[in-house]
């Protein structure tokens, strides 16, 4: 058996607000799934310049100074408040008004120790260290709108996600055994138990046009060996009877944890291991895709280290050999795979460009490149891994311009247009929201 990758104790906090494909400091990492679903192109960027918190419209304009000597992490925002923790280790949720002049930072939820939160629509949902989940109107003037909606949540696996009127989370059934479960987002009705085991993090919950997909670790107590323990469950959009896709053939934990969703598949790395520093070792792995019916097929001769859905039965991915590929899939089989003319490729993303297809962008050691329709590439000059950030459902790429005092810029996904957003140097982007 293979050693399992050890999970950080507070895995939920690495994905707290779920808005950035990456977290905070520019270039610090870029994989996170859930942003506001509002119309793209009309929103705000929240950033730090010389220890001052600002926000500026994504379409350009005069930056608004919000707070001096600001330090924050895991931020998300509404039209009236920016929510955040005051440091990476804090469990005290803070917020600052975006509409009041000279607003002071204040605590939210009193003395509760918050270990996970998410803003969805008009509401903020959060879990405390006692396993109680609450919600409140996110623009409420005070704490009086806070309401308990669930209890007995498993704080060892705090990640949850609100999808289509229900909250999906981990609950301690009978106070002892961890089960994946769901409940109405307003707290009404009974808990629906999905399966015994744990949803490892909120990223393992995915909503699609036809239903909800949840990946469950059926042996969550095991923290050293990588067993075949990951089972995919599908449910109707509004809740209902869960269906196990691969109950007879559970996936290896390492293979699953190193994988990611596409629109139609879960892509995993068969044969992946971890080294003594808990880094994935892909040398003997191959990429596979599993359908929501539990059918698996080989996607790649190498491990898949980064993945982006292109729509139209096409997937863009980075192989563990450092090359980029675009594969076409039909009838649960790869019908063609074409390499992208790049080397030392590290990551791939589908950047929102206002179209349904989006724009595929590959990150490589030599720069960042947009893929054209003929699979040729266009270098996005000035953008690197270390100075850029991409957000789900937000148009363009945001980066600080080394040639202009590290001011904040927005570049279109194809690299054809640039827009200057700040006058001073930027060290951190906290979040970007759509109105």
From TrEMBL:
Domain Prolow-density lipoprotein receptor-related protein 1-like beta-propeller: 42-181
InterPro entries documented for this protein: LRP1-like_beta_prop
Pfam families: DUF5050
Domain of life of the organism encoding this protein: Bacteria
Protein name (Swiss-Prot/TrEMBL): Prolow-density lipoprotein receptor-related protein 1-like beta-propeller domain-containing protein
Organism, as annotated: Paenibacillus jilunlii
């Amino acid at each position: 058996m293979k050693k399992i990758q050890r999970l950080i104790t507070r895995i939920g906090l690495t994905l707290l607000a779920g808005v950035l494909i990456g977290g905070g400091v520019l270039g610090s990492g870029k994989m996170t799934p859930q942003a506001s679903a509002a119309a793209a192109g009309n929103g705000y960027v929240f950033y730090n310049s010389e220890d001052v918190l600002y926000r500026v419209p994504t379409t350009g304009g005069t930056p608004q100074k919000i707070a001096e000597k600001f330090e924050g992490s895991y931020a998300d925002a509404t039209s009236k408040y920016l929510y955040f923790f005051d440091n990476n280790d804090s469990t005290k949720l803070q917020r600052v008004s975006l509409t009041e002049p000279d607003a002071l930072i204040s605590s939210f939820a009193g003395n509760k120790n918050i270990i996970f939160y998410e803003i969805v629509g008009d509401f903020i949902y959060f879990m405390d260290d006692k396993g109680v989940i609450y919600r409140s109107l996110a623009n409420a003037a005070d704490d009086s709108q806070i309401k308990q909606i669930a209890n007995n949540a498993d704080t060892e696996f705090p990640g949850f996600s609100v999808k289509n009127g229900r909250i999906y989370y981990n609950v301690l059934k009978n106070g002892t055994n961890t089960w994946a479960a769901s409940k109405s987002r307003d707290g009404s009705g009974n808990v629906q138990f999905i399966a015994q085991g744990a949803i490892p993090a909120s990223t393992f919950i995915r909503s699609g046009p036809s239903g909800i997909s949840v990946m469950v670790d059926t042996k969550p107590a095991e923290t050293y060996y990588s067993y075949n323990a990951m089972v995919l469950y599908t449910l109707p959009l509004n809740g209902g009877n869960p269906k196990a896709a691969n109950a007879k053939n559970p996936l290896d934990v390492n293979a699953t944890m190193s994988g990611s969703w596409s629109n139609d598949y879960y892509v995993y790395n068969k044969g992946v291991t971890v080294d003594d520093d808990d880094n994935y070792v892909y040398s003997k792995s191959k990429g596979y895709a599993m359908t929501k019916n539990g059918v698996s097929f080989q996607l790649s001769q190498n491990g898949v280290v980064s993945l982006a859905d292109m729509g139209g039965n096409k997937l863009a991915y980075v192989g563990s050999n450092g090359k980029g590929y675009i594969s076409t899939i039909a009838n649960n089989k790869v019908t063609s795979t074409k390499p992208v003319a790049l080397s030392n490729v590290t990551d791939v993303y589908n950047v929102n460009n206002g179209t349904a297809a989006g724009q595929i962008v590959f990150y490589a050691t030599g720069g960042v490149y947009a893929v054209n329709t003929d699979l040729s590439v266009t270098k996005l000059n000035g953008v690197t891994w270390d100075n850029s950030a991409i957000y789900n459902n937000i148009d363009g790429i945001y980066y600080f311009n080394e040639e202009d005092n590290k001011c904040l810029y927005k570049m279109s996904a194809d690299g054809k247009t640039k827009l200057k957003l700040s006058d001073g140097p930027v060290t951190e982007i906290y979040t970007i929201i759509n109105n």
